[in-house]
Sequence to fold (486 residues):
Amino acid sequence: MTPPTRADLQELLSAQTPAVELLPRFGVLLAGLAEEAVDAHERITLLEDLRTPLWRAMVQYEQQELARALPFSDAEMQRWHSYIEAWSLTLAAYLRALAEAGQEGMAGLVPLLLQRVVRQAVQVALACFRAYQAVQPDLWLLVHEQLRHAEKLGVAEIAVADPTIDREGRGSIADACLHLLLLDFCDPYGFAPGQLVLASRWTERLARQSRLSLEPVAHGPAGFLVVDLEQGAGMRLLTEAARDGVARYVDISAARDSIKRLLAKLRLGILPAELYLGEDCTREDAEHILERIHRRWRTSQRRAHPRRVVDEVVRIAPGLVAVHRYLRWTGEGHAPELCEGLNESRLVDQSPSGLGLIQGVVAQRLRCQQLVALVARREVLLGSVRWLTVDPPTGLRFGVRVIAGRAHAGALRTSSTVPGELEPVLCLPAMPALDEPASLIASPGTYFPDREAELQQDGDAPRRLRLERLMETGADFERISYQPVP
Fold:
């Protein structure tokens, strides 16, 4: 391969083509920069010049592609491979530059190159999170290895200029490691794509309020947050201190307190933009994401309900329209198995509040936090997709959080409904034992405070309602409490 030159870079950057369509060409240039034949100083110069334009192209790709349902189609998967390959080749090129840092005049670049290597490794991991795929152990080991190298040189805490870092524009090797550890500990496979972008942005900032330590740092009475640098995994909550030398303890107490303060301000009505959380999220979304992070960072992560292993074939109706169609179909006395739009999955574990499933032969696509109904032995359980991962050998694995109550199909008319038409809704009864009011599950955008609507159900006379509170927001639904209008 002919070594790339500055002219090649300029030609790429001047192309009148959407950045996302240039990813394969970025890949060719980066593959050249990872080759041994490139001059060491020229390699670093070209990598640094290419870094910000590549970052913009990646952001554009994420905005266009990563909100799609899973699993990806063949064409979508091909574009995703170009995306992750660009990150991986950038990592390989910086690793090559780091290996050459012993050459004359390059020793002072070691802190920068170590930070770049770790930050690129983090981007490869984030690409896996965004496609709901597992981060490979080798990548974790690479991150741990670079951290140990930086600690040995005494540069782990040295911040270097980095224009790709939000707000600060500077970051250290330790900051990049903590960003990945914190986001991984949040269970990223439970975030919708847009939420994951925000969670990544905020955990990157919270990483600067956290620290790595050789000495044990208690994470409340439950134990210690520990990273084993010889294991290909992130941090774990252990009840006892780990082995000396290879263990790093993570102190997130300041970051946790920061989340508490942010949540308190959001609940007072302060907008996310005023708290430097960005202008691309609502107050409700910001509160939901930060609450989820805070729950995952609690001092105990024991399950509220134990799971038991099962093995049962169930049928799934994905999305509000499909669930509504099934309830209408069976409510009219038709055979459940003849209803269109149902697909089989295998139930592998369950608890009173959740279910774990595998969909081997992919007959449908799902999104995180999408509404679904599970049909088994003519019983119907309503829920939302709590998490999902794409595992090529077994297919799509996902968890469903059960929404309590027996749902009934209904229809709603609001001021925005097209004249003569009704919107499908699901009606859930009040559940006093769970302190849950009667509610509706409707399409996104239905809820406005104190909005009045007309509900029709089971052939009864229409009822006037006042929409009271937004109880839950999913990828394709809103759950809304209501009160009858006299």
In short: The domain at 308-403 is CATH 2.40.10.220 (Thrombin, subunit H).
